[in-house]
Amino acid sequence: MPRYDYDxxxxxAGSGGVRGTRLAGGYGARTAIIEEERxxxxxxxxGCVPKKLLVYGAHYAEHxxxxxxxxxxxxxxxxxxxxMIDTKNVELDRLxxxxxxxxxxxxxxxxxGRGVLTDPHTVEVNGKSMTAEKILVAVGxxxxxxxxxxxxxxxxxxxxxxxxxxxxRMVIVGGGYIAVEFAGIFAALGVEVTEVIRAxxxxxxxxxxxxxxxxxxMQKRGVKVLSETVIRSIEKDGDVYTLRCAGNEIIxxxxxxxxxxxxxxTAGLGLAEAGVELAGNGAVMVDxxxxxxxxxxxxxGDVTDRIALTPVAIQEGRAFAETHFNGNPLTVDYDDVPSAxxxxxxxxxxxxxxxxxxxxxxxxxxxxxxxxxxxxxxSGRDERSFMKLVVDAHTDRVLGAHMVGLDAPxxxxxxxxxxxxxxxxxxxxxxxxxxxxxxEEFVTMREKRPNPERVQAAE
Length: 459
Hints:
By secondary structure, this protein is of the alpha/beta class. The protein folds into 3 domains: 6-143 and 263-325, FAD/NAD(P)-binding domain (3-Layer(bba) Sandwich), CATH 3.50.50; 151-260, FAD/NAD(P)-binding domain (3-Layer(bba) Sandwich); 339-458, FAD/NAD-linked reductase, C-terminal dimerisation domain (Enolase-like, domain 1, 2-Layer Sandwich). The chain contains 13 helices and 21 strands. Strands 1, 2, 3, 4, 5, 6 and 16 form a 7-stranded mixed sheet that branches.
């Protein structure tokens, strides 16, 4: 008789949990995965996929405007928000079905309910105890809001994806990925959007030039950005919400959305009671092999609060399965992880921001290009793309590539391969560009931006 019911029990059926569990099952392990909602997780059900579908839908507003100068007549066009939400939900149902099929085909038992650890090898769900040699925690994160009066009146990105009608005015609090992406969606569809941020600029952690250029483009589209602003309280009077700021400024709006970060979803899972070390925000502390402080318990994805990106969670899930169930020890390389923000216009970034590169390497060269995309020479839209390369002046290695503009995520994905391979600026320069394209700017930038430290030394 086996000592445990399963070789692996996974709590949480998002991207990382599904990848790790279905690979383990495919390698012959006896596996089960526990999920209290629907299989798919944040990305498929409440994040990347539905959000980007709404981004696509919102972009048609600009496409229709831009089409006029290309000879198209688009009189009478209108948008049905509720219909888009319905068709989006049909697609999510389809994806949920695909995930269930993948698990089933890899001999993974799917258990509906909330799993809670009762000891290092036991999970209780629906009043039943299940045991496993190894337990993988992959419960992701959940939107977090500050403890201020009236916060019960706000919605998060979860509810924003299910709105049945659009408000006339909307305040979005936060300056990260989710906030700027939803600001672009709602503004394109005619909502008066005000974005409120604590910091001096949006997208903390990104290259400064990216933050500035995206802010400019968002403001051109009517998004009002209030920086260095703190909301103290929220009141509701009928259908109107009143936000009181730290300086007693008052903002009135028809809907308030908070996108102020996500917290690891570990509350009530019994992790601490089982001896698992948690960070102050509830994240599971793990080593490079995804192992927690308890030998039999592992964690991957957003619940570890390392890099909260779906492809990273998938890599972690694969590394876990390969290591423990396929005799192929793997760890994840967290250097030069590319990322995208599906804002309007979008952002793509890989490697080091200028500020970090300068602090780490000292002498660096910076190349920038700012231009109007060819499509807008006829459309008439006032939009500029911005591209940037950060280079180690001593070795010529490209340390970072950053872009704001049409197709930025698609372009940066290819550039990320070069940076992962330690490509030099000379190799970028030797690469033939594709013309006419925006991507060719990354291999045709020749003029260095003046280095402030060198200029100061010369004076």
